[in-house]
Design brief:
With 248 residues, the protein is α+β, with helices and mostly antiparallel strands. Among the domains are: 45 residues; 85 residues, no CATH class; 34 residues, no CATH class. Helix content is 38%, strand content 6%. The chain has a four-stranded antiparallel β-sheet. Helix 3 packs across helix 5. It starts with a helix and ends with a helix. The C terminus is likely disordered.
């Protein structure tokens, strides 16, 4: 979340403090209004993105088979996988339910089996963490940022001491605006550059006519069928080429 918010502040990083804070205030005001509009149009207990993910999980869970072990443990079998779901502690051996709070396909299959066996499980959305619920999203953006007048209407300071700005020493080089990327992002960029370089090497192997060149290939003689020479230099010596020094 911090990285997502930091990405939106690229245009304000090199600005003075007051200008930067005003930029953040305007951005947050617009974001709160947009989220409230989305909440008013959303339907269902889950947020729109969570609802989309939840429907995909339902489709995947319909292809699994469930074996009930006891009241709380279920063995869920897939085509090439097998997981154990504990509905009491809301855990699964795939650990997706534990880590994200969103039902995995194995847990969804177990809950569907409980509903078929007339067990009181309620709606499946109740098993999802409240982090993905619509009312939680609404409560997060329930606050408002009130508008404020410009600095032309600010009250003059009554401080008897004249405040002067601190001494500023201009650093060498151009100010940095881009954020420092993590190790995973740098490694991904290096892998992409290597992949692009390989593609460019293959493209250079084609001529302007769109055909492959003979570079790196083996030449076959059309006269004797031998390799390593062409018809112009063929001597008919069982596919071997005789050099000018050998002929002399």
């Amino acid at each position: 979340m911090c990285e997502s918010f930091n990405k939106q502040l690229v245009g304000a990083r090199d600005k003075p403090v007051i200008t930067c804070l005003e930029y953040i205030r305007e951005y947050m005001t617009k974001r709160i209004i947009n989220v409230k509009k989305m909440v008013s149009k959303a339907a269902g207990p889950l947020t729109p993105n969570a609802r989309k993910t939840f429907e995909e999980i339902k489709t995947e869970a319909s292809q699994l088979t469930v074996l009930m072990v006891d009241d709380h443990n279920y063995q869920v079998n897939g085509l090439r996988s097998q997981c154990v779901v504990n509905v009491k502690y809301k855990t699964c051996t795939c650990r997706k339910w534990d880590l994200t709070g969103m039902l995995c396909k194995h847990a969804m299959a177990a809950i569907n089996d409980m509903a078929i066996n007339n067990m009181n499980v309620g709606i499946p959305e109740q098993w999802v963490s409240e982090t993905y619920w619509l009312h939680t999203w609404k409560r997060v953006y329930d606050n408002q940022i009130m508008p404020i007048p410009s600095e032309d209407y600010w009250m003059p300071s009554r401080c008897p001491t004249t405040l002067i700005p601190p001494k500023h020493h201009k650093q060498i080089g151009r100010p940095k605006k881009k954020r420092t990327k993590s190790w995973d992002e740098r490694k991904k960029r290096v892998d992409e550059d290597k992949r692009t370089k390989r593609v460019e090497e293959v493209e250079r192997g084609f001529s302007k006519g769109g055909r492959m060149t003979r570079k790196g290939g083996t030449v076959k003689c059309g006269n004797c069928g031998g390799f390593g020479h062409t018809r112009k230099t063929c001597t008919g010596n069982n596919g071997t080429t005789t050099t000018s020094a050998q002929r002399g």
